[in-house]
Design brief:
With 73 residues, the chain is of the alpha+beta class. The chain has one domain. The protein has two helices and five strands. β4 and β5 form a beta hairpin.
């Protein structure tokens, strides 16, 4: 089992609700600009965990978990 943390704020727009409504996680970056992220996501397997997180302002070492999902396919 792997655990993957991801953001759900795309340019100031919170998309967490869309992820849960559609039962789907989507990267907010273009594949050409984020090949490493797409490679990491392609390695996820059924049963792995994805958590949605946000980082506190001013880069304080606090992470807020906004949601948790399990890879199903």
């Amino acid at each position: 089992m792997a655990i993957f943390g991801a953001g759900s704020n795309w340019g100031g727009t919170e998309v967490k609700g869309e992820f849960f409504e559609n039962n789907k996680f989507v990267l907010g970056w273009n594949e050409d600009n984020s090949k490493d992220l797409y490679e990491a996501v392609s390695q996820l397997k059924v049963g792995d965990i994805i958590y949605l997180k946000s980082v506190s302002p001013r880069y304080i070492r606090n992470i807020e978990v906004k949601g948790i999902g399990i890879v199903t396919k």
